[in-house]
């Protein structure tokens, strides 16, 4: 698995849809979610999943393995330990793990596959501290908006299916900053 990079590189995940590509990075301080997401991308498990819940002005949700037309072997939609941190607010383009509600999930464990991307321009800060934000979109905000604009039916499910394919590549952090304007937090050296 390529979840390890040299310190000067990062993985960029590309989610390709019929509307274009969404590019995102995953945070190192949510290692369980990062490794799990990369495993699903690299194994091809996510390919063919759809955005099954879309709420314009809020978020788009995907990653439900049961929405694929083919079965995914050996991967269940169980849960993984929450990694809720104050470092990552629900700003526009935040990538977070979906989960069951507090009444049945008081530990706020994350779905091991379902995720959502915040579409709202001003973010969704009312969710901060309740869900694990484990990544950030760095390109393709127009694609997120196009997905969010789709007509939906019962359960906020788009009438027309929007499937995706996922790839990952290692790119230098310098190039990510140059091309996409993403600024990495400064690493403080220990004394």
From TrEMBL:
One Gene Ontology molecular-function label: peptidyl-prolyl cis-trans isomerase activity
PPIase cyclophilin-type domain mapped to chain residues: 11-162
Keywords: Isomerase, Rotamase
Documented EC number(s): 5.2.1.8
Domain of life assignment: Bacteria
Reaction catalyzed: [protein]-peptidylproline (omega=180) = [protein]-peptidylproline (omega=0)
GO biological process: protein folding
Pfam families per record: Pro_isomerase
PANTHER family: PEPTIDYL-PROLYL CIS-TRANS ISOMERASE-RELATED (PTHR45625), PEPTIDYLPROLYL ISOMERASE DOMAIN AND WD REPEAT-CONTAINING PROTEIN 1 (PTHR45625:SF4)
Family classification: Belongs to the cyclophilin-type PPIase family.
Function: PPIases accelerate the folding of proteins. It catalyzes the cis-trans isomerization of proline imidic peptide bonds in oligopeptides.
Protein name: Peptidyl-prolyl cis-trans isomerase
Species: Bernardetia litoralis (strain ATCC 23117 / DSM 6794 / NBRC 15988 / NCIMB 1366 / Fx l1 / Sio-4)
Lineage: Bacteria, Pseudomonadati, Bacteroidota, Cytophagia, Cytophagales
